[in-house]
């Protein structure tokens, strides 16, 4: 798999979600849907009923990022509903291996997310259970925050762990990803890029996605990790 861009609809107009998804159709590889419960993060967005309606309305695969407490209990329903990728936060999961297996057996890709201060090394042995590792490059909860450069070395170490084990685990970054920051992430080892403000804040969101993809592809081609 090459570079993939997953625009976050958190920055879209929630009163016109289907139309907002249509604006990126064809250009976006995924639709990134941020589920927040006002407990794991200090913000509240949407839940399963809205995701179910979105899944019925759009053809782009849905990438659910669950910023919720007790994902062991709630996450499998998103996979059962038809989300092609479901990501839970390891900080909130009681049994991440069991949960990743439950997501896969419900038919979705299994993703695990790390907040900026959560180290990746303790989870090295879990990587074969995952289809994607999400490294947050802002504190989760809100769109439009500034990219945290301090996380870049962790992106590189995560890619080293994946490469060292010869695994096909996608490495996603989320938070403050823009034309100014995407190349740093791609060079460090990310290959799936969430972008909210830099896509939906642009006059032409589909064009913004194509530009981000081009920047990331070029940066990856000359990076340490893709050879
Ligand atoms: C933040 C969310 C992100 C957010 C990214 O907690 O997980 O997906 O929408 O938005 P930007 O790209 O604007 O930082
Ligand atoms: Zn997100």
Structural features, described:
An eight-stranded parallel β-sheet has the order 1-8-7-6-5-4-3-2. The protein is of the alpha/beta class and about 230 residues long. About 35% of the residues lie in helices and about 20% in strands. Strand 2 (about 30-35), helix 2 (about 50-55) and strand 3 form a beta-alpha-beta unit. The mean pLDDT is about 100. It has a single domain, classed as Aldolase class I (TIM Barrel, Alpha-Beta Barrel), CATH 3.20.20.70. The protein starts with a strand and ends in a 6-residue tail after the last helix. It has helices at about 15-20, 50-55, 70-80, 95-105, 150-165, 180-190, 195-200, 205-220; strands at about 5, 30-35, 60-65, 85-90, 110-115, 130-135, 170-175, 190-195. The radius of gyration is 16 Å and the shape is globular. The chain is built from eight helices and eight strands; from the N terminus they run E-H-E-H-E-H-E-H-E-E-H-E-H-E-H-H. D-xylitol-5-phosphate binds next to strand 2, strand 8 and helix 7.
Judged by helices, strands and strand pairing, the structural class is: alpha/beta
**CATH fold description:** TIM Barrel
Order of adjacent strands in the largest pleated sheet: 1-8-7-6-5-4-3-2
Largest β sheet strand count, sense and barrel closure: 8 strands, parallel
Distance from first to last alpha carbon: 14 Å
Helix share of residues?
Answer: 25-40%
Number of helices: 8
Task: Give start-end ranges of low-pLDDT stretches.
Answer: none
CATH fourth-tier homologous superfamily = Aldolase class I
Number of domains in the coordinates? 1
């Amino acid at each position: 798999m090459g570079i993939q861009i997953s625009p976050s609809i958190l920055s879209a107009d929630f009163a016109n979600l289907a139309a907002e998804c249509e604006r990126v159709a064809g250009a976006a590889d995924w639709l990134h849907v941020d589920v927040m419960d006002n407990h794991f993060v200090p913000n509240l967005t949407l839940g399963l009923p809205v995701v179910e309606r979105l899944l019925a309305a759009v053809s782009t695969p849905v990438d659910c990022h669950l910023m919720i407490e007790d994902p062991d209990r709630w996450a499998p329903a998103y996979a059962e509903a038809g989300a092609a990728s479901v990501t839970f936060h390891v900080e909130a999961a009681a049994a991440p291996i069991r949960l990743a297996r439950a997501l896969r057996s419900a038919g979705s890709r299994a993703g695990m997310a790390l907040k900026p201060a959560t180290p990746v090394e303790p989870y090295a042995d879990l990587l074969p259970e995952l289809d994607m590792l999400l490294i947050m490059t802002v504190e989760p909860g809100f769109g439009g925050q500034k990219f945290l450069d301090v996380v870049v070395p962790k992106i590189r170490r995560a890619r080293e762990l994946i490469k060292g084990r010869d695994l096909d685990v996608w490495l996603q970054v989320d938070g403050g990803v823009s034309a100014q920051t995407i190349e740093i992430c791609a060079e460090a080892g990310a290959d799936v890029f969430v972008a909210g403000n830099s896509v939906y804040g642009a006059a032409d969101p589909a064009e913004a996605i194509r530009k981000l993809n081009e920047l990331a592809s070029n940066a990856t081609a000359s990076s340490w990790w893709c050879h």
